[in-house]
Structure formats: structure tokens, C-alpha cells
Design brief:
Radius of gyration: 21 Å
EC number: 2.6.1.52
Pathway: Amino-acid biosynthesis; L-serine biosynthesis; L-serine from 3-phospho-D-glycerate: step 2/3
Number of strands: 12
Oligomer: single chain
Protein name: phosphoserine transaminase
Helix content: 25-40%
Catalytic activity: O-phospho-L-serine + 2-oxoglutarate = 3-phosphooxypyruvate + L-glutamate; 4-(phosphooxy)-L-threonine + 2-oxoglutarate = (R)-3-hydroxy-2-oxo-4-phosphooxybutanoate + L-glutamate
Structural class: alpha/beta
Largest sheet: 7 strands, mixed
Family: Belongs to the class-V pyridoxal-phosphate-dependent aminotransferase family. SerC subfamily.
Shape: globular
Length: about 375
């Protein structure tokens, strides 16, 4: 490819909204309107008073409805995002030993957290090459099985299901940070389905939320009642107790709560998780179909059943410079389609989160074709 930095893409080809990043996600205009409405009343007020607690209650109820939460499951939330939750779970959910599936950047980080914890046995870590995924294996002594439902760095999706033959009482923890609200799930197949709101929920980061089973709630209470030292900020039982009061242990970002609530209400009004999963599947399907027909592009994830519907990773052959395509798109207002930085591949990574219009995805593909044809 030649120099495409100055290439002007015709306005008629451009998507209406050019945000396709893997997080933070595109935010819908209606969420900004909700934030503006909250600006004169709710923002700048105490998070322990009724207006904000009612907002948190609306989020918790809305998520329970969205995920068709089974009897006894509770929505727990706290400050810090999914990164903080890995440490919280290491302190408050793993009794002795965890098994992790590591098939990308994010699964490996949780594995590192439990593996370094001095009060836990060495973790069992089952790895797979980027673009593929491993399977959990029942292992005596493992009391937590953990993996991402969607590996944001590579565009691989993994089933959410209990581990056959696992010890009685073992828990399944699913990192759903980029999956929740965009991929279908049966919550009964997991004990903690946790996520942050900056992906399909089109809000900001810095908050973690989890759908907790009764078994996970009991495990957290039992560990907390023992002799393990747990820092206050990372104390899961404290987060559970505060969540039951519709608040957080320390001050959350109220703007994050407002935009999150707006997105949850939008999803539920439009048909819930079936609507969301159908919409992301439509967008991702357009990308994979385009890549499979292309002479220069191919889906990075070889097995169709492993391909994510919320993160599509597309490789290009050596005649195409994917970084040049991304730079040209950025210069024309279409942003954040670069690959995950540590993967180091000649590819584009395109988010198809539920806030993104499928027709904008098609427009993006037309823009990529235009750049390739005119380079």
C-alpha cells in the first residue's frame, strides 16, 4: 500500500457515528441527554441519599430483569472496575485454589492475581494461543473456575457453562466485561458474572458489577468471617452489604451510574438480552461475511463457533498495511479500530457493541474497501 494519510473518504461512505473502539464504547445521544437532565439535580449530591440510592436500585433491578436472574441471585457493585475485582475475588471468593482459562490478555491478568496471592495455592492455568480457546478441566481441590466469556484482546468468545465433574461447592466466575449486555448467557451456569459498564453498557469505567449466586454470596460471607486479612477497599462482603442498601462503600462516579441506567433501560425496553444479542450478531455477521469474501482479509479467529459477536478481529495479508488503514480512517473521523497493542498483528479490531448501529458497521466496511482500492 502507498501513503494513504491524505486520502479523503467521500462523506457519503462514512458512518453516521465513527466510534468502533473496544472500550470505552460509543455512547448513545440519549445517554448524554439523561446525563444533562441529571446535571441540575442529581450530580453533585450525596451517594448515600435517596436520589442516588434510587438510581442504584434502578440499575440493580434493571440488570436482574435483563439477565433473567435466577432466584436468589443478587446484583453487587463497587468502585474500581474489573481490574479491582480480580483482586477482590482473590481475597474474597477463592478459598484455596483457582483454575483459569488464559487465552488472551484479560484472562491472563486474573490468573496472575490469584497465582501471586500468598494465602492461596498455586493456580492451575490452562493456556491457549491467541485466536483459540481452551476448555476447563475438572480438577480435585479447585474451588473456583474462571475465564472470560469474551476475550477483548483477540475476539474469541467462550461458552458459559458449569464444569462437569468439578468438586461439590466449586464456583464458576465469568469475566463478562466486554460480553455482558451483548452476548446471551444463562446465569444459572455461573456463580459470579462480573463486568464493567464501558463496553455494551456504553458508560464509563471505574465501576464493577456482578450477578452473584447464593453459593457465591455464602462463600464471600464465610471467607470474610475467617482469619484472612482483607483490605477494606477489597472486602467483598462490604460491597455486598452496601449493594443491598443500593450504595457503594466509597463514592462512585454519578455520571457513570446515570449513563449506565439509561442504557439498561434502553436494552430492556427494546427486548432485553435477546434484542442485544441479536443486534451484535447482526453487526458481527456483516464483518465476518465481508472478510470471508475478501481477497485480502480473513477472520483472525479460525473457528466460526469461537468468533465473538462483540469484538471482531480481522487479519490482512502482507500486501495490506492494516495500520495505514486505521490511520486513514482516523483522519476521516472513524476511530479506534487498531488491533490490541500487545497482539502485534497486521489486523483491525472492530467493536460491535450493542450501541453501535449495524448500518454503521456496513459503512465502515465500505470505507475500508475504499481505502484499499485507492491506496
Amino acid at each position: 500500500m502507498g501513503d494513504t494519510a491524505a486520502l479523503k473518504i467521500p462523506a457519503g461512505l462514512l458512518p453516521r457515528d465513527g466510534r468502533f473502539g473496544a472500550g470505552p464504547s460509543k455512547v448513545r445521544p440519549e445517554q448524554i441527554e439523561a446525563l444533562a437532565q441529571a446535571g441540575g439535580s442529581l450530580l453533585g449530591t450525596s451517594h448515600r441519599q435517596a436520589p442516588v440510592r434510587n438510581l442504584v436500585g434502578s440499575i440493580r433491578n434493571g440488570l436482574s430483569d435483563l439477565f433473567s436472574a435466577p432466584e436468589g441471585y443478587e446484583v453487587v457493585l463497587g468502585v474500581g472496575g474489573s481490574t479491582a475485582f480480580w483482586d477482590i475475588a482473590s481475597f474474597g471468593l477463592v478459598e484455596n485454589k483457582a483454575q483459569h482459562l488464559s487465552f488472551g490478555e484479560f484472562g491472563s491478568k486474573f490468573a496472575a492475581a490469584t497465582n501471586k496471592a500468598p494465602f492461596l495455592s498455586a493456580s492451575s492455568i490452562i493456556k491457549a494461543e491467541p485466536g483459540t480457546r481452551p476448555q476447563p478441566v475438572a480438577e480435585p481441590g479447585v474451588d473456583v473456575y474462571a475465564w472470560p466469556q469474551n476475550e477483548t484482546s483477540t475476539g474469541v468468545a467462550a461458552p458459559v457453562q458449569r464444569v462437569q465433574g468439578a468438586d461439590d461447592g466449586s464456583l464458576v466466575l465469568i469475566d463478562a466485561t466486554s460480553a455482558a449486555g451483548g452476548l446471551d448467557v444463562d446465569l444459572a451456569q455461573s456463580d459470579v458474572y462480573y463486568f464493567a459498564p464501558q463496553k455494551n453498557f456504553a458508560s464509563d469505567g471505574g465501576l464493577w458489577l456482578g450477578m452473584f449466586s447464593p453459593a457465591a454470596l455464602e462463600r464471600a460471607a464465610r471467607i470474610n468471617a475467617g482469619d484472612r486479612w482483607i483490605p477494606d477497599f477489597l472486602n467483598l462482603q462490604t460491597a455486598i452489604d452496601n449493594s443491598r442498601l443500593n450504595q457503594t462503600y466509597n463514592t462512585p462516579s454519578l455520571s457513570t451510574l446515570v449513563t449506565l441506567n439509561s442504557q439498561v433501560q434502553w436494552l430492556n425496553t427494546n427486548g432485553g438480552l435477546a434484542f442485544a444479542a441479536g443486534r451484535t450478531a447482526e453487526s458481527a455477521g456483516r464483518i465476518y461475511s465481508w472478510a470471508e469474501k475478501s481477497a485480502v482479509a480473513t477472520p483472525f479467529v479460525a473457528r466460526p463457533e469461537d468468533r465473538s459477536n462483540v469484538i471482531a478481529t480481522i487479519d490482512f495479508d502482507d500486501s495490506i498495511d492494516a495500520s495505514a488503514i486505521a490511520a486513514t480512517l482516523r483522519a476521516n473521523g472513524v476511530v479506534d479500530v487498531e488491533p490490541y497493542r500487545k497482539l502485534g498483528r497486521n489486523q483491525l479490531r472492530i467493536a460491535t457493541f450493542v450501541a453501535i448501529e449495524p448500518d454503521d458497521v456496513s459503512a465502515l466496511l465500505n470505507c475500508i474497501d475504499y481505502v484499499i482500492e485507492h491506496s
